[in-house]
Amino acid sequence: LVIGTAAFGTVTAISTMRTEKKEKVYSAEDMLPQYESQTEAEAIEDLKKYSLTPEITYQYNPDRTENTVIEMQPSAGTQISSIDSVQLTVESSQTVTMPDLTGMTTSQVQSTLQELCKGRYQKEMLTYNYTADDTAKGICYAQSKQGDIQVDDLSNFQTQISWGKESSYQTEMPNLEGMTVDKARKTLQKRGITSKVRVSHRIADDAEKGEVLSQNIPVGKTLNINKEDKVNYNVPTTIEVTISEGPAPTPKPTPVPTKQAMPSPKATKSSKVHSNKHDIKADGYFDD
To answer: How far apart (Å, rounded) are the C-alpha atoms in residues 270 and 148?
Structure first.
């Protein structure tokens, strides 16, 4: 009985070892296979042998007929026992993985989307807004979706790029009266007002020549100088100012012509005075 018990116990132990060996699907020396160029489905299925579920990043490639692994991390040949996770980059004609774009500059967002979306990229994917916080101008602060996106849904994808605070684009129309035209232009430019200045002239007795007398935009009017803001930008193309020509010139007195003495008429033969004392009558006869 004792021998039988021992033998039975020995058989039981051997049976348990065999069972454990069947459940063990890889050894400590097993290496990660090469999955690049395999289909996504083939790679996922093979990794199940190692109880590994891959993290997949999709890159859009309209020419792919099947989802295909183009990159893997860690690389093939890495010891399985040292691996916690596997990352696969898969090219797909149907899906793209959108990363976190927040914090990127406008140019970085553009280049990333152009690379990811290829021919599906649209400039409307970047939208611009003012922010109430201190987000710097030109920084992405939100996006409509992150993660896997169906390629057909890319037309609805949008990012939000900051213009900064709206108050940083607001200025008031200055008072230009009394300035020269040159100083008025410089004053406008310092405030970000890029309008052209159109000048008209008027005689003014109480202003020096060249001084601005009036302007067509009211002093203190709030102007939004952000040209990218097609809704609120309200800087006029032209600002009209009237400048002084100075006082009216004093008219010169009109000279009064002087009267000249009329010349005495010259005596004619018929009007000569005769030496005799007789007067000539009209009929040519003399009086006695």
So the answer is: 133
Listed in sequence order, the residues at least 6 apart from 130 whose beta carbon sits closer than 8 Å to its beta carbon are 162, 163, 164, 165, 166
* pLDDT classification of 28: cutoffs 50, 70, 90: low
DSSP 220: T
Q: For 204-222, what is each residue's pLDDT tens digit?
A: 989 999 999 999 999 999 9
Q: Exposure string (b/e) for 155-183, b if CB count within 10 Å is 16 or more?
A: eebebbbbbbeeeebebebbebeebeeee
Of 249, 222, 252, nearest in space to 235 by CA: 222
Alpha-carbon separation of residue 250 from 75, 199, 205, 253 (angstroms): 97, 25, 11, 9
The backbone torsions φ and ψ at residue 153, rounded to the nearest 5 degrees and listed phi first, read -95, 0
Q: What is the pTM of this model?
A: 0.68
The strand pair at 238-244 and 222-224 is best described as: unpaired
pLDDT in tens, 123-168: 999 999 999 888 999 999 999 999 999 999 999 999 999 999 999 9
Task: Tell the burial category of 236 from Cβ atoms under 10 Å away from its Cβ (0-12, 13-18, 19+).
Answer: middle
DSSP bridge pairs for 240: 198
Within the chain, residue ranges assigned H as helices are 2-23, 40-47, 106-117, 181-190
What's the pLDDT at 258? 75
Q: How far is CA 285 from CA 112, 121, 273, 275, 277, in A?
A: 134, 130, 15, 16, 13
Q: Which residue in 126, 143, 119 sits closest to 60, CA to CA?
A: 119
Q: DSSP letter at 106?
A: H
Strand ranges inside the chain, DSSP E: 55-60, 68-73, 87-92, 95-98, 126-129, 140-143, 147-150, 159-162, 170-172, 196-202, 212-215, 222-224, 238-244
Q: Name residue 149's amino acid.
A: I
